[in-house]
Structure formats: C-alpha cells, structure tokens
Amino acid sequence: MLRDGVPPSSGFGIGLERLLRYIVGSKYIWEVEPFPKLPGIVSP
Fold it and tell me: Backbone phi, then psi, for 30, in 5-degree steps?
C-alpha cells in the first residue's frame, strides 16, 4: 500500500483538543482535555 512512500496530502491535521482550546479561548490545552495528564492524579 505504501510501497512507494507516503502519498501527498493537501491539508493539515489539528486535534480536537487544540481546536476546542482556540474556540473557548483557553490558555492551556490540558484545560479542555477530557482526561488531562496531571502529576499526582491518576485518571482512567
């Protein structure tokens, strides 16, 4: 399938968390993540 290399792309990828961060005007991406990775806190 990718025998000749990576096919050309015509777009850019932006994650849902980054898009939400821009929409709500948050300064940090971890504020809009459903399960943020914070030291000392265990999440599912």
Answer: -70, -15
